[in-house]
Amino acid sequence: MIRSRFGAFTPARVVAGDHDLSGRNVIVTGGASGIGVETARALAGAGADVMLAVRDRVAGERVASEINQSIGADRVLAGTLDLASLGSVGSFVDAWGDEPLDILINNAGVMASPLLHTAEDLELQIGTNHFGHFVLTLGLTRALMNAAEDERTARVVQLSSIGHRRSDIHWDDPHYRNRPYDKWEAYGQSKTANSLFAVGFNERFEEHGITANAVMPGGIMTPLQRHLPREEMIAMGWMNEDGVVREGFKTPAQGASTSVWAAIGDELEGVGGLYLENLAQALPWGEGPNAGVMPHALDPESAERLWALSEQTTGVKL
């Protein structure tokens, strides 16, 4: 098992602290809120040039300015990206072009939303969390290949979740056309898809100098919970009646640490297709307390099936 030298609650800036990322280009989707902000801050603080790929450009520019002030350098910019619109994804890819991209962190996500749909009429959670990132990543693959060097791979980081345990992918009806909608099941299948995409992408591009890993960041209170009523979070034990978050939740800076390690950790150079949590390779589900990865999220046959489904759904192929 691969482990870092850091503990589960280490802040992201500490993970990045001894790295010199000068000259490296990074994209962080959903970088205007939550752990995306702290992921970008840690990498920019270590010298990387970071693009916040965000739906709300004004909010992204505000965050970019704040990070630049906090690190004392102008290394962070914002660009418009709406993962729920494949047209927007295509425009972002076109704007980036073939400029070398060292690190792509697919961080943005939707959790436990009501039944909503993307511009292409895909269920919002899997449509945004997986299919939008699928099109983005394939569109940026040439840029990632352009950044790969003989002694250093380019890296893709896929944000998954412990929520993957709630559902495998419902292959016959992933968009709830013919079955009752369950917001947590829908979230679970989207997070399973995120992990499987890392497996499938790594299988195809590791030999071309790009690796991909999935990340479980931990429990963090961020705008990801925007669709959850306070009463539901209390009922699930995430906080008490006074709004105090239960022990074990991480701060955004701590929640960003595994993403940063996946992006730059020396232990992961040339290594892909893994599911990472708490700054280490995850154990199989059940071998630790409320942690680990279930087999369906790393199954290579399912990864191939998802790849075929993704090509069919989006019309984007290698």
Short key terms for the protein model shown above:
eight-stranded mixed sheet; alpha/beta; globular; 8 strands
What would you say about this model in short?
The protein is of the alpha/beta class and 318 residues long.
Describe the structure.
This protein has 318 residues and is of the alpha/beta class. Helix content is 38%, strand content 12%. The protein has helices at 12-16, 34-45, 57-71, 86-96, 124-139, 141-147, 183-205, 230-235, 252-255, 257-264, 300-314, and strands spanning 25-29, 49-54, 76-80, 103-106, 154-159, 210-216, 275-277, 280-281. Strand 1 (25-29), helix 2 and strand 2 form a beta-alpha-beta unit. It starts with 11 loop residues before the first helix and ends with a helix.
Largest sheet properties = 8 strands, mixed
Determine the mean pLDDT. 92
Percent of residues in β-strands: 5-15%
Strand order of the largest sheet: 3-2-1-4-5-6-7-8
Write down the oligomeric state: single chain
In angstroms, what separates the terminal alpha carbons? 32 Å
Low-pLDDT sequence parts: none
Please write the string of helix (H) and strand (E) elements.
HEHEHEHEHHEHEHHHEEH
Q: Per the principal axes of the C-alpha atoms, what is the gross shape?
A: globular
- For the secondary structure, the number of strands is 8
* Helical residue percent band: 25-40%
Question: Given the helix and strand composition, which structural class is it?
Answer: alpha/beta
The rounded Rg comes to 18 Å
Number of helices: 11
